[in-house]
From TrEMBL, chain A:
Alphabetic keyword roster: Amino-acid transport, Cell inner membrane, Cell membrane, Membrane, Transmembrane, Transmembrane helix, Transport
Listed PANTHER family: BRANCHED-CHAIN AMINO ACID TRANSPORT SYSTEM PERMEASE PROTEIN LIVH (PTHR11795), HIGH-AFFINITY BRANCHED-CHAIN AMINO ACID TRANSPORT SYSTEM PERMEASE PROTEIN LIVH (PTHR11795:SF371)
GO biological process assignments: D-alanine transmembrane transport; L-alanine transport; L-isoleucine import across plasma membrane
Subcellular location: Cell membrane
Family under the similarity heading: Belongs to the binding-protein-dependent transport system permease family. LivHM subfamily.
Topology with respect to the bilayer: Multi-pass membrane protein
GO CC field: plasma membrane
CDD domains, A to Z: TM_PBP1_LivH_like (cd06582)
Protein's recorded name: Branched-chain amino acid ABC transporter permease
Length: 336, 397
């Protein structure tokens, strides 16, 4: 019984939030890693692309709500998601045509691209704040919980409750579907194969007749879809605020680099590594320890490695350690 | 150069001797609150409270020789020291004779140190409650119509004890106000024999508080005391704690009392309780009545204190016959405290007349003002309980 209690407490406070957060990071990191693999630069505007997509989703969610359209127990935002994706696709394509294309034709160095993306980031940053404002926006509706902590306690008779939010369930399911689709696309379709070829060796790919502009365009379209989905899921699960999306850039890049830049599989693994370490290192293990350890060993203090203030420091530390000892990341991506 | 010096001296002399002619027809008072930021939902009613006192004085026509009072609003952002000091400078440049504000403790300290002291400007804050401000060097220029959080900590500890709470977890917003309040709650509660399982900070403006909530849940406790802001991290923490079933009752100090919290959280908040500065004095009712005539909620947090802060300025100016901070500053404590005739809200005209005739007043105002120590309110508190999605005053302490 004690073991079950410990497991439930751990799931409630560490595993479930960690898995949901990890899925959101993984989707974000996939976008970053695709850009890095194919366009060969670190896109700092990714966090704000997510914010832009989410903003469009929120605006249409509100419109749908005012029309009385809803998705029943699911959040209305899911209905607005395709519109958000299309709008974000339009935005990134316009940005690419207006900004990045120029530097591609100049054959600019990657570091120039990074600086350019920084500029794009500030533009998008301003655009989002201009349209929806800098404040918190809540747009979740429908059923809030799949299972509530109180109900779980009654059902099982355990001392610990387990809560699963609808947004967490949706996040994990959506992430699995999106990742499956992406891998099918990259591995099985002609376009996907040409993208991988372009990523592996640009010159060889050009020689074999692959149209680079088309590869670039498709990459942007996929990245826009991934960013909007990741942003919307994060917003549904937590809340939407332009500044937090900007801050997400750090864990997302940490995830992409830990997994190995340019490797989609690495981005997913990296997302979960970062999310789990953030949650586990700042978790106070007192309660779980109290259940499973014998009485003599029970922790007196909180058994917390780092105060929660240092959550971001965890991503930073992992990032630095990986760059020092294994710059190619877990899945042998490109060296940074 | 010599001529200029003589001229300046002559002007200074004449200004000093003949202040009756120097009394302006228009008195400007700055209102420096956080119209944006973590307490943006409280600031508008606070400003309305202060402006009510000013319009009352203007309409009475008794200040000096029928001078009118003009409010100048400016923003502190509540947590933005740069913005707050810049706006305080702006108010002084625009000719404010006193500043009602700041609101949050951190920015109030910054304005005091960087603007008020160098310029010799007087500040009366209706809401900055950090214990740190009591001991801060202020050259006698800083007053507040709200009690210090050291007092609030004692009140909260006694409410907890009366409700039979044995152990609490505390989380506070990571600034002067939160830290000071958390310390005082912890020490008072422990002195009363209670157990504090954990004290941790949270940052405002984050999207996700699950890690903070997890640490708090692991430490346990009967209730969770959230010394934060209701529009910011405080809300996020409560939402997270309810979602995971970590806590179901919350202790809510003054920064968490406001109508938006029960509205945003919903019925799960029922049964949570807290306290906020306020009194059952006659003045509170009169003020609430006048406020509702004007269409704002006079029981909203710190609105009555703001009225009192503005009123104290104007009464002190009348008593000294001058709008110069260095002349009227000594009169502030005098008009606020006994002896003298008791003054309630709505009687500012009468008070001005008594002062004009050389009499004495004891300003009670909307919160039973009584300044102690280095110019801060002795303070009484309202005990609040959330019932059916509303903040209900259950008791006065």
């Amino acid at each position: 019984m004690d073991f079950l209690n410990a497991f439930v407490a751990l799931s409630n406070f560490v595993l479930i939030p960690g898995i949901a957060y990890g899925s959101q990071l993984a989707l974000g990191a996939l976008g970053v890693t695709l850009i890095y693999g194919i366009l060969r630069f670190s896109n700092f505007a990714h966090g704000d692309t997510m914010a832009f997509g989410t903003m469009v989703v929120i605006l249409f969610t509100w419109l749908f709500q005012s029309w009385g359209i809803s998705a029943g127990p699911l959040p209305t935002a899911l209905l607005a998601l395709p519109i958000g994706i299309v709008a974000t696709m339009a935005l990134v394509l316009v940005t690419d045509k207006a900004v990045f294309k120029f530097y591609r034709e100049q054959k600019a160095k990657p570091v120039v691209f990074v600086m350019v993306s920084l500029g794009v980031m500030f533009m998008m940053n301003g655009l989002v704040r201009f349209i929806i404002g800098p404040g918190d926006q809540r747009f979740g509706d429908g059923e809030r919980f799949i299972i509530k902590a109180g109900t779980f306690k009654k059902m099982t008779g355990l001392d610990e409750g387990l809560a699963i939010k609808t947004s967490q369930g949706i996040t994990v399911v959506t992430a699995i579907i999106v990742v499956a689709l992406l891998f099918w696309f990259l591995n099985k379709t002609r376009t996907g194969k040409s993208m991988r070829a372009y990523s592996d060796n640009e010159d060889l790919a050009l020689l074999s007749g692959i149209n680079p502009e088309r590869v670039v365009m498709i990459t942007w379209l996929i990245v826009a879809a991934l960013a909007t989905i990741a942003g919307t899921l994060y917003g549904l699960d937590k809340s939407f605020k332009p500044f937090t999306y900007f801050q997400l850039l750090l864990p997302i890049f940490a995830a992409a680099i830990v997994g190995g830049l340019g490797s989609p599989l690495g981005a997913i693994a990296g997302g979960f590594v970062i999310a789990m370490s953030e949650v586990m290192i700042t978790y106070a293990w007192k309660k779980v320890g109290g259940y499973i350890l014998p009485e003599s060993l029970e922790p007196e203090g909180l058994a917390q490695l780092l105060s929660t203030d240092y959550k971001f420091a965890v991503s930073f530390a992992i990032l630095v350690v990986v760059l020092l000892f294994k710059p190619t990341g877990i899945f042998k991506g490109k060296a940074v | 150069m010599k001529k200029l010096l003589t001229a300046t001296a002559a002007i200074a002399l004449s200004a000093g001797t003949a202040f009756a002619e120097g009394q302006p027809k228009e008195v400007k008072l700055g209102i420096l609150f956080g119209f944006t930021g973590p307490i943006e939902s409280l600031a508008p009613t606070m400003a309305s409270g202060a402006e009510l006192a000013m319009s009352e004085v203007s309409e009475s026509g008794k200040l000096f020789d029928g001078a009118t009072v003009t409010p100048l609003r400016a923003d502190t952002g509540c947590i933005d020291n740069g913005l707050a000091t810049a706006n305080a400078e702006k108010l002084i440049a625009e000719g404010a004779s006193g500043i009602v504000g700041g609101d949050c403790s951190g920015v109030t300290g910054a304005i005091l140190q960087n603007v008020a002291i160098p310029n010799g400007m007087v500040m009366i804050s209706p809401s900055a409650s950090s214990p740190g401000l009591t001991s801060m060097e202020d050259n006698g220029l800083f007053f507040r119509t709200t009690p210090s959080d050291a007092r609030q900590g004692e009140i909260m500890a006694s409410i907890l004890a009366d409700r039979g709470v044995d152990s609490i977890a505390i989380t506070y917003t990571n600034n002067d106000y939160g830290k000071g309040l958390a310390d005082s709650i912890q020490s008072s509660f422990e002195a009363a024999g209670g157990e504090v399982t954990i004290v941790t900070a949270h940052e405002d403006g984050k999207g996700d508080y699950s890690a903070e909530v997890a640490a708090l849940a692991s430490a346990g406790g009967d209730i969770l005391v959230v010394a934060g802001y209701l529009d910011q991290g405080g809300l996020g923490i409560i939402q997270g704690a309810l979602d995971t079933g970590a806590f179901d009752t919350f202790g809510l100090p003054d920064g968490m009392i406001g109508d938006s919290l029960p509205t945003n959280v919903g019925s799960d908040l029922n049964g949570s309780f807290g306290q906020i500065a306020g009194s059952d004095s006659e003045g509170a009712e009169i003020f609430a009545g006048k406020a509702s005539e004007l269409g704002f909620d006079g029981t909203s947090a710190y609105s009555p204190e703001s009225y009192d802060a503005a009123a104290l300025f104007l009464l002190a100016m009348q008593a000294s016959g001058s709008v110069d901070p260095k002349d009227y500053v000594s009169k502030i404590t005098e008009v606020a405290n006994a002896p003298g005739e008791k003054i309630n809200p709505g009687e500012l005209g009468k008070a001005l007349e008594i002062l004009a005739n050389g009499g004495e007043i004891d300003y009670e105002g909307a919160t039973g003002v009584n300044l102690i120590g280095p110019g801060e309110s002795a303070g009484s508190f309202r005990e609040i309980e959330v019932q059916d999605g509303k903040n209900v005053t259950v008791k006065f302490r």
